[in-house]
Design a protein that fits this description.
The protein has about 70 residues and is an all-alpha fold. About 80% of the residues lie in helices and about 0% in strands. It is built from three helices and no strands. It has helices at about 1-20, 25-50, 55-70. α1 (about 1-20) packs antiparallel against α2 (about 25-50). The protein is extended and about 45 Å long.
Length: about 70
């Protein structure tokens, strides 16, 4: 799943660059990111449940990452 997401993100980035030039956020990549956000989140929760953890662990990890980025 992760490898497919990386490859598809690169492809959509190339399409955005070819179609819209050197803009910071292209619409094709943005639509792709929005379309795959919830399935990726569900996949993360499923993997956590596979190791007998709840989905709240993802929230704790996201908060810690945000805290590190804020510092």
């Amino acid at each position: 799943w992760v490898l497919a997401m990386i490859i598809l993100s690169i492809i959509t980035g190339i399409i955005d660059y070819a179609a819209f030039g050197d803009s910071e956020y292209g619409p094709v990549n943005s639509i792709f990111s929005l379309a795959t956000f919830l399935p990726s989140l569900a996949m993360s929760f499923r993997r956590l449940h596979d190791i007998d953890r709840t989905g709240w662990w993802w929230l704790i990890a996201a908060f810690c990452a945000w805290l590190v980025a804020a510092l």
